[in-house]
Amino acid sequence: MKTIKQLLMMCLVISATPVSAMSISSLMLVNADDKAGILTLDNTDNITYFLKTSVSKVEVKNNQIIKTPYTRKNLDSWQIATKPSKLVIEPNMVKDIQIENICGDSCDRSLDQVFQIHIQPVSYTNEGENQSKISMLFGFAPYYIIPASKSKVEYQASYDGTNITAKNSGNTMLTLLIDQCKDNQSTQQEDGNKPALCTATFTLLAGRTRVLHVPEELQQENLDVILLNHDETFTQEITLKQGQ
Questions:
Q1: Is residue 76 domain-shared with residue 130, that is, in the same domain?
Q2: Predicted confidence (pLDDT) per residue in 15-57, tens digit
Q3: Pairwise CA distance, residues 27 & 16, whole Å
Q4: What Rg, from alpha-carbon coordinates, does the chain have?
Q5: Per the domain annotation, does 5 fall within a domain?
Q6: Does the chain have fewer CB atoms within 10 Å around its N or its C terminus?
Q7: Considering the entire predicted model, what is its pTM?
Q8: Total domain count for the chain?
Q9: In this structure, are 35 and 128 located in the same domain?
Q10: Cα 87 to Cα 118: distance, rounded to the nearest angstrom
């Protein structure tokens, strides 16, 4: 699980604007427990932020990512809810957003359930002072994943020397890891060069086919790749040969 937590900041289309004064604990939170998931926000700015949260259900249909916002019109189909939905974070304060499972036994755990949590700032008035000049313009949009109760891993992968074409036909998200750091470290010790790029990670949602560009520094005729599921109960090392 430790490896996954270190690697999961990657290739889903995650929307987050870098901010010097506000930070979030994770941009991809996987929660297999029945307990609420928690995202932690840390305000190191000298102004107060008023934030609102919303949720979108994320599904893969015909290899496209479809996001359906939660609204009053589809309230009956909600699977999760954020608590609180609105919050105020004063300077130098830390606050948690809980993500609660509200569908109970009716939740579909036969495959991963994927959501996007939108955390957006709005103007806030305090003691007559309008703090509408908010430096965090776009907020955060981390992914929240409730994994399948039992992982069924099925995939296909090919390599043309530049790109990996990978298809995840199983029921759970896969992480593809290229790790050449050990080999690079030996080379650097011999020639004294500065450390170079030696690792790359990619995420593949269930049902998705993606073309993954391998950084030029990592391209090899025979490419070693490690595949992992969310909790590393599935770990497999494979070698992709160019042209196969």
A1: yes
A2: 344 444 789 999 999 999 889 999 999 998 888 889 999 999 9
A3: 8
A4: 21
A5: no
A6: C
A7: 0.83
A8: 2
A9: yes
A10: 13
Which residue's entry shows tokens 């309008």? Answer: 130
What is the side-by-side order of every strand in the sheet holding 174-179? 199-204, 174-179, 222-228, 235-241
108-130 pLDDT tens trace: 999 999 999 999 988 655 555 55
Instruction: Give the C-alpha separation, 55 to 71, whole Å.
Output: 9
Distance, first Cα to last Cα, the chain: 31
Cα 9 from chain centre: 6
| Residue 26: φ, ψ to 5° | -160, 145
How many Å apart are CA 105 and CA 92, to the nearest integer?
A: 40
Pairing of strands 28-30, 143-146: parallel
Query: Residue 176, by phi and psi: left (phi above 0), alpha (psi -120 to 50) or beta?
Result: beta
Indicate which CATH number applies to the domain containing 217: 2.60.40
Domain interval for residue 183: 155-241
Query: In terms of domains, do 69 and 189 share one?
Result: no
